Amino acid sequence: QVQLVESGGGLVQAGASLRLSCAASGRTFTTYPMAWFRQAPGKEREFVAGISRTTVITYYADSVKGRFTISRDNARNTVYLQMNSLKPEDTAVYYCAADRQVRGPDYISSRVSTYDAWGQGTQVTVSS
Question: What separation in angstroms does the CA of 126 have from each of 10, 22, 69, 76, 110?
Fold first, then answer.
């Protein structure tokens, strides 16, 4: 069983930066591809960024490419999302997710259905 706890959200102005953290429990964290998703009011949950268990492969939604960076520290069981140049349209609840299936070292998916462990979410609000 893995538990994911996000932190780092908040209210910022457009153009600012935030860093989200996702702390994972359990000794098998290093075997999981990890991702960040977000959900704005009235919208479906959408993929933001993902990272393979080896950290070699990262993948981003087009809407955040060049502004957001996902990383992980396997020694600390933590995944990060560095968000720069934030825009009002980035406003959403951000969720950390783990894919606990057996995957290859460079596997990463952008599909919500792939992930079977989720955090409770952290709110990010960007004002114009």
Answer: 8, 20, 18, 29, 24
